[in-house]
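Sequence and fold
=================
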Amino acid sequence: MQYYTKRGDQGNTNIITGRTVRKDSTRVEAYGTIDELNSLIGLIVSQVDGENLELKDELLMIQHFLFDCGTDLAVPDEKIPYKITEEETKFLEQRIDYYTPIPVEVDKFIIPGGSPLASLMQLARTVTRRAERRIVTFINEEEKTNRQVQIFVNRLSDYFFALGRVVNHNEGIKEPLYERGGTVFHESFKTADKRMKKED
């Protein structure tokens, strides 16, 4: 198998169905950033304790989902069925809901950091946000694509935030809080949230 084809030497690439686009198009920027994020998750997996097989399997599943996201973003005009659906986002929401109550609740922004693994989780969160911005630009400026990808990626950044907090908690590391700002959630919001939960 030959790794180079020379087809991209002029700054172009072929997307699914063979259509040629520029390598700096908003479409390629979107799925290229997803690829960058997937590589970062691969690094994170390599740093997870070998005994924590459940987390490794969870992150590997997310890597598969990200390949699906890249495929959907590379498909023009629904030429083949999309892969990402509401189910993948629901999976993330379930994991976020599981992780959220584990560390102590905070009402200030958290300075990214802590353990090396937690810091990588926060880095993944910010790369995910960049991928989301690229997807939003592509959707708004280019053509129709699978909007479920945008929703999934939006939720994925919350997932990495929650997971990073859990990693610090499990390692007994106190997270630095951003002291120069106000509270993240005002009491009125918390009260309204509690009221809505009771009504549910």
In short: The chain has a mean pLDDT of 87.
